[in-house]
Here is the input.
Amino acid sequence: MREITSPIPQYLTALLETVREEESGQVADYIPELASADPNPLGVAMCMVSGRVYAAGDCDVPFTLQSISKPFVYALALQDRGIDAVMSTVGMEPSGEAFNELSLDEESNRPMNPMINAGAIAVNQLINGEESSVEDRVEVIRGLMSRLAGRELGFNESLCYSELDHADRNLSIAHMLRSYGVIRDAAHDAVLSYTRQCAIETTARDLAAMVATLGNGGVQPVTGERVLDPDVCRLTMAVMSSAGMYDGAGRWMARAWAYRRSPGSPAGSSERCRGSSAWPRSPRVWTRRATACAAP
Here is the structure.
């Protein structure tokens, strides 16, 4: 009996060719090291909940996680500290404001959600306990990211220190959090810990496995290791859906659901599929969904 060949690799290659000439947008220019980044690598990877990984293009070119790290560290905080401790530190409502806004909820004096920088810095400080050193806290975070990716991850040190040299906005946020008692660590140490979290280096192939772990209820599909509890994954994905696009969350949700309901999308696709193995029949439809889902 002849083995059936999956069409997905050809679909992924066709998808890349469809968007290869798209040159809108720009690299981040507020950090010198990011401003000099090569914008040309283009790759895509999919990890199924079965553990099968499909990839095309420059999917093994390393890049730093930056704000993509936020939902994973939020999941780690939920896993280790519990929802009550996390909710006492950060909310889960969309802020409607820019990701780096200096603002807190007017009633609770907490960050509105863990996806904006104020919330992400506060959540970072929950990891490994409030008395943890920066080094130990960052190592716990790196360890989680490595388990999610299925291999040992490291840091881009030059990018990390370039970010620290231009971290005035985040330092202001950390001082604000400290003044309201949201964090106890010194502002500089809080920003150092958060910046190192963002400087963890990964690839599209790694990230596909990390996201698939959330979609698979916390079980890493390739290694089979249970990394997170199912309830933690569900809550993390819910907050990603409502707040992961910052002040564009509503527009993103409307667009994402419009494409999910299109004739090219599979009926009844679930949160589990959207995070890991959904595959609509039309590459054009998937291109738009992929662009939206990858943006946080």
Observations:
- Confidence is low (pLDDT under 50) at residues 261-296.
- The CA atoms of residues 18 and 284 lie 8 Å apart.
